[in-house]
Amino acid sequence: MKNISKYLLTGLFVCAAGSVFAQSGNPYIHDPSTLAECDGKWYTFGTGGGGLATADGWHWYSGPVRPGGGAAPDVMKIGDRYLVAYSATGGGLGGGHNGRVLTMWNATLDPESPLFRYSEPVEVAFSDGDEDCDAIDAGLVMEPDGRLWLSYGTYFGNIRVVELDPATGQRKDGNKAIDIAIDCEASDIIYHDGYYYLLGTHGTCCDGVNSTYNIVCGRSKMVVGPYIDNVGRDMFQGGGKMVINGERRAVGAGHFGRTIIDEGVEIMSFHWEADFERSGRSVLAVRPLLWKNGWPVAGEQFKEGTYQIQSERHGYALEIAVDYIRGQQQRAGWFGMDGNAPVSPLPNQTLEEVAGSWPSGNIRVRLGDYMSRPHQRWAITAVPEAGGYLSNPYFKIAIDGTDRILTATEKLGVETSTEFTGADSQLWRIEQLIDGTFRIIPKSNPTLCLYAIADSSPILAPYDFSSDNSKWSLRKE
Amino acid sequence: MKSNNSFRLVAALTGVAMSLSLFAQNPIIRNQFSADPSALVVGDRVFLFPSHDIPAPEDFARKDWFCMADYHVFSSTDLTNWTDHGVILHQKDVPWGNPTAYSMWAPDCAEHNGKYYFYFPDAPAPGSGGFGFRCGVAIADRPEGPYVPQEKFIDGVFGIDPCIFKDDDGQGYLVWPSGGIKICKLKDNWTELDAKLVTVAPTVNPNIPDSIRRRIPPMQQVEGAITVDEVPTKGLVEGPYMFKANGKYYVTFPWARENTEVLAYCMADKIEGPYKFMGVFFEEHPNGCWTNHHSIINFKGQWYLFYHRNDYSPKFDKNRSVCVDSLFFEADGSIRPVKPTLRGVGVTEGTGRIQMDRYSKIGGGASIAYNDTVDYFQGWKTVLPPGGWVSYSNVEIKNDDYNVWVSTPGFWGRSQIVDISETSLSLKTNKQANGYYELVLTNDGNMPTQVDWISLNKHQPLIPASNGGISSGSYRNVFVEAGYDAAAVEAKLQEVFNDVFTGKNRCYFEVGKDKAYISDIKNNDVRTEGMSYGMMIAVQFDRKDIFDRLWNWTKEYMLMKEGPMAGYFRWSCKTDGTANAEGPASDGELYFITSLVFASNRWGNMGEINYLEEAQRILDAIQPRESEFMGQKRTVSLIDQKSGLIAFTPGMPFTDPSYHIPAFYEIWARYAEDGRASYWRECAAKSREYLHKSINSVTGLNPDTNNFDGTMLRGGMPGLAPAFRYDSWRVPMNIALDYSWSCSDRQWQQQYGETFQNFLYSQGIDSFVDQYNVDGTIPEKLIRAGNYPEKLRHSMGLIATSAAASLLCSHAKSYEFIDQLWNTPHKPDADGYFDAYYDGLLRLFAFMHLSGHYRVIERTPQMATYFAPADPTVAVTPDNEGFVHRWTIHDPILKPNRSNTVFVDSYLNETFPAPMVKNKKDKAWHVYDSQLYNVKLYRFATCTGQQRYGVIFWVTTTIECDTDIENVRFSIGSNSASKWWLNGEEAALLSGDRRMVRDDMVSDPLTLHKGTNVVTGAIINGPGMSDFCFRLVDGNGQPLTNVKIK
What we know:
The complex is a heterodimer.
Chain A: H1 2-10, E1 24-25, E2 36-38, E3 41-45, E4 51-54, E5 59-62, E6 71-78, E7 81-87, E8 99-106, E9 122-127, E10 139-142, E11 148-152, E12 158-164, E13 178-182, E14 185-192, E15 195-202, E16 214-220, E17 241-244, E18 250-262, E19 265-275, E20 281-292, E21 295-298, E22 305-311, E23 317-320, H2 351-355, E24 363-368, E25 378-382, E26 395-399, E27 405-408, E28 414-417, E29 428-432, E30 438-442, E31 448-454, E32 457-462, E33 472-476
Parallel strand pairs in A: 1-5
Antiparallel strand pairs in A: 2-3, 3-4, 4-5, 6-7, 7-8, 8-9, 10-11, 11-12, 12-13, 14-15, 15-16, 16-17, 18-19, 19-20, 20-21, 22-25, 22-33, 23-24, 24-28, 25-26, 27-28, 29-30, 31-32
Chain B: E1 35-42, E2 45-51, E3 70-76, E4 83-90, E5 108-112, E6 115-122, E7 134-140, E8 148-149, E9 163-166, E10 172-178, E11 180-185, E12 196-200, H1 210-213, E13 219-223, E14 226-228, E15 241-245, E16 248-256, E17 261-268, E18 276-282, E19 294-299, E20 302-309, E21 321-327, E22 348-349, E23 361-363, E24 367-370, E25 380-384, E26 389-396, E27 403-408, E28 416-419, E29 425-431, E30 437-443, E31 449-451, E32 453-457, H2 469-472, H3 478-481, H4 486-501, E33 508-511, E34 515-520, E35 525-527, H5 528-540, H6 544-558, E36 572-573, H7 586-603, H8 611-621, E37 625-629, E38 632-636, H9 662-671, H10 677-694, H11 730-741, H12 746-762, H13 796-804, H14 813-823, H15 838-850, H16 863-866, E39 867-869, E40 886-890, E41 893-894, H17 905-911, E42 925-930, H18 937-943, E43 951-961, E44 965-975, E45 978-982, E46 985-990, E47 1001-1002, E48 1006-1008, E49 1011-1021, E50 1027-1033, E51 1044-1045
Parallel strand pairs in B: 22-26
Antiparallel strand pairs in B: 1-2, 2-3, 3-4, 5-6, 6-7, 7-8, 9-10, 10-11, 11-14, 12-13, 15-16, 16-17, 17-18, 19-20, 20-21, 23-26, 24-25, 25-31, 26-30, 27-28, 27-32, 29-30, 33-34, 34-35, 35-36, 37-38, 39-42, 40-42, 40-43, 41-43, 43-49, 43-51, 44-47, 44-48, 44-50, 45-46, 45-49
Helix pairs in contact in B: 4-15, 5-6, 5-7, 7-8, 7-9, 9-10, 11-12, 11-13, 11-15, 13-14, 13-15
């Protein structure tokens, strides 16, 4: 985090290529479960018994409590309570593979709540020591019609799926396990638009900066498979299309979990086996989850920089309402132009050239045809001390090089004010949607987002994924 | 919502072995919550009647309130070891009570005219005429029950916390809080107040609306009762206790003096009073626990205060635990204030677990912490910084020949037990004036360390498993733990096996080329019992030959193929196969099914016998059927439908405790694939519940036959009341099996094991006999074995099964049971009595158990699933997708690799400079057709019993072509890295961190020559499950299928 505070001080954040813009606090975990929300906090469980929690989505701390130890749990809210699936054993390279997956309920995930109490765990799947399965790494999935399934297994044998009773969390009587993949670990099945997607982790874990973990997927019309990848290969024959692998400063992506934040807003959580910015420790990571041509794609973490904020509605960009000042250029006539005469680059219009003409107080914000003029260029910088949300810290949005701060007004509009006070109306949540566009939400009123109600008129209005009015493209220069 | 989702505290799942024998210290009840302790001295025992806090179940709305559904009773002769006698009264069983009110608050009990009167508050059921809390009474012949609740509550008593006080003249008084404290004489029936009851309008909360108030029945007020009105008027006074000491009457009570409760008292010279308020003798709990209920007794000349505190529920003070400390009087009769301790009272055996965290003194910065912050019942540990120390007083050291063992909490809650010399700790033993010792444990090192407990024992302390073999796959070798040499144990086990199957006194006899039987020689017959035992032993010892012979004989002669019991087995035949009976005995079916399921797991079902199908056929046959039974049409099944318990014989309305092996049902649920998994799991739970009721909690003995509710069977053979005899010997071993495999009933079964061994030990370890009444007395009439004379014997069978119970025990007595089994030869008694069959089989089972060789047989992958033997002279073609199935595989060659991560190109090239050439005479090459598109090398290794990890597999195949074929490519996936050659030329290298992925890598174009082409591959397996897939594709990527492979 040293980097960020330094950039904040200079006001000139230049994103170092590949630097990990990681969750703050102590996000150290291995094999995180899918994130689960409980009473406004987010929880994830990891291998060993503990896990991580966050009140704001960005600052993580150790806190969740889970008995039974073992490896790689998963959690799902069903009705008004939480089903936790975990393996009582640890698997292990070259070790025994007597595995068992157990489920248990809790009315809350908050260990401080008087309601916090786990039901007695029940076994729902197992593997004997030397069969083609290693019953750990639980993943829960619910079909749209309410049928509940559990996938499990490791590189030792097959990934299997069994059906559970969503009322009891127990295995359905007579249900036989079905093999759906080989050579995976950390399986998780998700449903999207008519398909089930099996996310598995390939590669090797637990070897620090040399861990080759990477997340792949295939898809099927049915929970029980076959899961076919983008080139038609069955995951039972080792197939799988990459979703995320190593980055410049972090490697070993594993243990996928998908969380739907809102319609069209999804994130994927996983761990990096090694975060190079944190001594190569295993950390929780969150990325926007995008869908392209029917396949899940890891979105880029939104990074600081100078952006055009372009409305998806018509294509106009966010700007402050100031006089348009013509740019300067020596022009020659079209006719008789000497193609061989020397040319030279023209400078862009600078802030100094125009800022003097701007009003001194608050300025209305509108949408206009983008010309890369100073009044259209927005510097977006993180404000980590203001907390954050699952995928990022809050951001400050200002006209580049100025203190013209994008601010939500009480009249459900936006303007720029002249001083950054750190008020919630000046802090913005920027989230990538599943189609790659963004929504921009003021911290002061999280039920509203920046909304192009007309081609030229941005206001604050409720988010609606089905309307391009809610969506923005953030184009970096 | 179903009840099996009810929220219960998760205990017993993590790895810390909980010490279940209860060794002194506070709290004294350590396997459940317990509160409001009322102690009662009966002879040389203290009985404890606490209320039983539970976390609120789903049907109890007030999650933050007191919640109690039943009462347990505990007893102890030394205030150190406490026996849980189980539930004595449940809210469902109170005739006038609300069955779902969870209001079984503080009770009390006293003896009167040889009966025990148990007074308890409860919420009346709607319509019972009661309101609020009323006081009931339940009566028993013995302090541990069974208690029979009276039909009606006691008129005139309103509210909670009854106390029964019996004066020296035998007069009983009921004491309860009622504004002040009321003391009222009981009539001689002890079920009614001896006072005038006056009906008055109810005084209830004025906030209650009139509409409800009208429905409250009138109250009866007691006239003529004694009222202790010297109690403080400010702050709630509840939970009074009354006792007499040195001729003075004491009324003690909790009092909310400021915020939480203290204990205060009044004194009087006469029961009528006047009572003088004497002040406080026990301060508020420092941890904030609000309530402070108690009782005071004199036991063997010392006064004790029983009280409670929320030690096992630090965040919720309504889940409490009983503690005890000594109490003293001043010369003037006033009570000296009691300071609560962790050490508590009583003497701790040095050979047991000494929980130093229950210290007498502590210093040097040492502190205590919970072992597990999720499951507080896992107890505490002591954290000792350098120089830190704790002391623990009143330890009994009987024998100076001991080592000091230290249990230190380890990673993920797994404790480690080491000799103290391997730690930085030192232990000092200071002899006290009373002959016992104070132990002082000090950390002399310069790193902090943690201690769960210590033990002064010659051998490594025995620690019952914390996980069952079903889930862990691991089994203890108790002989080795008790100091026997591992090789000697194996040899002895084989010797005992030979005694049964091949020795001169064997009971196993082979018939023809495919059959054999096990004979009960003393009765000269063949029983389903012995046949099924033999099959179980055979599958445990991997003796398919013996198993198949026994099963073939059973199926031929014992299986009833027609008639009303078709599908069952006749329990007895002559040794030539002639039927002796036309009915089954249920334990035969029990063992047949389980051993067949194990045979299926171990040997698969592709041979002559489809073991799983046979097991499933029996499982279907034992389901309910309409049948003529003793002249009546009725439903007959192995498992009684109403109770869910195995019947003595199918259809019989009673059971045999020795037929209860709950873990067998769990095996069926896991492996039998008969679609009844949850039913079998329920049966397992019911069987365990039943055993709790069937077994005497003081002796650990059970009768040979039993009603389904666990009560004694009346009638039977004249003069032969059911007692602990031959059948029953098996119970301790069955429970040891259930523990060792399932571990689902840890606390009760551990207590059972020690109770049972304690009883036999009290009868003499070398001389306990083989028939007892369940109360431990000798039966009037004995049953004789075979044609031998009626006689009590120190039988081998019981020596064996009592030793097997050591799997349940932590105490040092178990070493003696184990030694006795090891050292006692199986030879005829002085009168010639010898039982090769029953004694012999039980002895073998016990040796199997204690050596870790009586196991859940897991599913074992079968070669036939993966490979078929192939004839290399007959060519085959690739499959439709071009995959080559015919491979000649070399035995795995040892090449250790810790990880499969990233085998670099240079490593592969150095390791495999050239292909291995097949030498036809080399016996290490084997020709197979893979059953799957991928060739499971790991399975080749495991199914042929070879090294599986850290190896290199060489494979080769030949491709026969009629003409040259150009532009052919190898398309390969392998786990892990591999290198491939065609006719000696390198063709492909799969380096890095490889997974078995179809079409992972394709070679450059190759040419297959006319004639024979040799493909060779080398595949590395580190710690993984090595396999590969190999196919040929043409220049367009289409599979090549028109070649011949040999």
